[in-house]
Each structure stands twice: as C-alpha cells, then as structure tokens.
Design brief:
This protein is mainly β. The protein has a domain at 38-110: Sandwich (Immunoglobulin-like). 0% of the residues lie in helices and 39% in strands. It has no helices and seven strands. It has strands spanning 38-45, 48-55, 61-64, 73-78, 84-90, 96-99, 104-110. The chain has a five-stranded antiparallel beta sheet, with no helix packed on it. A two-stranded antiparallel ribbon has the order 3-6.
C-alpha cells in the first residue's frame, strides 16, 4: 500500500534537499510528488477571465493572482470542507487574496 507522507516545508525560494532512509527494514520509493503549498490555474476568454487557487498549506496563505480582463472580480472563498465561507468583490489585474488552509478561492471577472 502506498501512503502519502508529508515531509515538511521547503524554502519559498532557492533549493531544498530531501534525504530519506529506512527506519528498519529496506525501503523502496515508488514515487515522489512535489506539491506547492498554493497552486493556481488562470483561464481567459472573450467574456472575461477566471482563476482557481487551491491551497495545500496548513495555514492560510495570501497570494497575488493575475486575472486577465478589466473591471471588478468576484471572489468566492471556500474552506477545506468545501463550504462557501465568503463572497466579495475586488479590483485590479493582480488582486491579493487569502486562501484558507486546505481551501480554494475562485476569482471570476465578467467583461461587460
């Protein structure tokens, strides 16, 4: 059975070295997945732009997200449980948003 193991946090910039070894019997590594604490997917189209920001962090993280287009953005913030926590509007092309630990933020801009 392959079980995920969280090995800690890496520096925000620069390199990190991961050293692993057996604690008893021999160990064979099947896979190593490196996951950023916060990831974003940004989409654009004729009707505006959107961004989906997901957190894998243990604490809330504040990030700037580039969203194409002009006009206000609707920000929907979801907790780690998937429930909507808040909805508000912001302006700008790289708004600053706080992503809840383990949660998701959806930014939607609809052009007029």
């Amino acid at each position: 059975m392959l079980l995920p193991v969280l090995v800690g946090t890496a520096p925000v910039t620069g390199r990190a070295v991961l050293t692993a070894g057996p604690t008893g019997a021999a160990v064979e590594v099947d896979a190593l997945v490196v996951q950023p604490p916060v990831e974003a997917v940004v989409l654009t189209g004729a009707g505006g732009g959107s961004a989906l920001v997901r957190s894998f962090a243990r604490v809330d993280r504040t990030v700037r997200v580039p969203v194409p287009g002009g006009g206000p953005l609707t920000v929907d913030e979801f907790g780690a449980d998937g429930l909507l926590r808040s909805t508000h509007r912001v302006d700008g092309t790289r708004p600053r948003v706080t992503v809840p630990a383990g949660g998701t933020v959806l930014l939607t801009r609809v052009s007029d």
